[in-house]
Amino acid sequence: MKNNGLWLNRDKRIVGDIPGILIGDVFFSRMELFVIGLHGQIQAGIDYVPASHSSNGEPIATSIVVSGGYEDDEDGGDVSLYTGHGGQDKNRSMNYGIEIRVIRGFRYGTEKVYVYDGLYRIVDTWSEAGKSGFEALKFKLVRIENQGEMGSTILKYAEHLREQPPDILQNGYISLDFSNGKELLPVSLYNDIDGQEDPLNYEYLVSTDFPAFIYNDCLCSMKNGGGYAYDETGVLLCGKPLILECGLWCPCPPSCRNRVTQHGVQNRFEAFRSMETGWGVRSLDMITAGSFLSRICGDAMIHSGRFAETWKDWGELSQVFPDHVSSSQTSVTPPLEFAMDVSTKRNLACYISHSSCPNVFVQFVLYDHSNASFPRLMLFALENIPPFRQLCLDYGVPDESPANLELCNQPHSQGTILLSFLHLYSEKSIDPMAFCDPGDANLTPD
């Protein structure tokens, strides 16, 4: 990556926020922080702009990783006492009022994670004897006001919910599991905005019922370009036009790594009421990029349509390895020959919001029949998704389209999802999303 110029923000060191990095973004190694320029030291806890890159010719501290590496550290969240080395670069940062990026590292479940918690300022520095009796430099950092909630706080709250899930309805919760036990893990329903309980009015589905004529012979993993589509932990290695999982007639056991989407939902999700998008979906767990999330379910009908081909962005390595041949160059995306009716039956995926900058993508998967025109619509994470961050999907429509483009976000919908949307945009030569609701009079173009 370095030889191909893919290390970011190295030639021009940045003070303050890094473009494209949000408070709460999660990373799984110090090398990730290094590559994107969030923290330019692989081991040291303090990063700085060297004198050769500083406008005034003086080194200035720019970021700190707080991970409990020093026994004298005291971390209170908004106020942190940090023990470090050096001193002059931190004093200059304090004197000049420099904004310091703070990244916190800690155990989340079984993994060490690093989360960006926003900008702080050094308000005091001093030297004192530490707990071991040695002289140590101390720095007091105070978080700048009017920033979003710290990602580390959200992660720790999510971990608390995982270890001690609520057993009674608390404020805002309508249901602790509106899948009624059909998913392997409960899917909670949360609304602290209004009295809307619409998701409870539908039969919950965990699978789409296809017509019988499409079922044929079994398919196996070696038809995915000669290898498995997933790694040993179930993470999707590379997006493909179509993934062929082992099916009902394959001799491999249920634990086969080529059956990832057949194991159902593996994270705790909740549908929640949002002022911006109506109903939305978020996870109560941290989700690793490439992980399977859920499937889109409804009654299948014969009709053509497609999603944006965001799968092409996942596992695309041609910029890193020039000899890499992407699957989008060697395969043809199968045409979809069906749409889904969610007017009476649906699942949690139907409440995911539209965005042209999604964190979720659709991957077509086959495992129980061989008709490529009727794939299962499986959702995978396009990036690391922290707890309580809203899931969003590119439905392949323009940004100026109606705001609430979730499959089921129109009130009192009665018909087949978004088929009328095909008609509304047909004269604009727009490739519409695969779902619409002709019974919804509110779904009109801007």
Cα shape: globular
Q: Low-confidence parts lasting 5 or more residues at pLDDT below 50?
A: 407-446
How much helix is in the residues? under 10%
> How many angstroms does the end-to-end distance come to?
43 Å
Number of strands: 22
Total helical elements: 5
H/E element sequence: EHEEEEHEEEHEEEEEEEEHEEEEEEH
* Strand coverage percent: 25-35%
Compute the gyration radius: what is it?
A: 25 Å
| Main sheet specs | 8 strands, mixed
Q: Look at the helices and sheets and give the structural class.
A: mainly beta
Give the overall pLDDT as a whole number: 77
Write up what this structure looks like.
- Strands 1, 2, 3, 4, 5, 6, 7 and 8 form an eight-stranded mixed beta sheet that branches. Strands 9-10-13-14 form a four-stranded mixed beta sheet, with no helix packed on it. Strands 12-20-21-15 form a four-stranded mixed beta sheet, with no helix packed on it.
- The protein has 446 residues and is mostly beta strands.
- Helices cover 9% and strands 25% of the residues.
Give a short overview.
With 446 residues, the chain is mainly β. 9% of the residues lie in helices and 25% in strands.
Give me some keywords for this one:
about 450 residues; mainly beta; eight-stranded mixed beta sheet; four-stranded mixed beta sheet; about 10% helix; globular; disordered C terminus
Summarize the topology.
Blueprint: E1 26-27, H1 30-36, E2 46-49, E3 60-66, E4 74-75, E5 79-84, H2 88-95, E6 100-108, E7 111-129, E8 135-143, H3 151-163, E9 173-175, E10 187-190, E11 203-204, E12 243-244, E13 269-274, E14 278-283, E15 292-295, E16 299-302, H4 327-330, E17 338-341, E18 345-346, E19 353-354, E20 360-366, E21 376-381, E22 392-393, H5 419-424
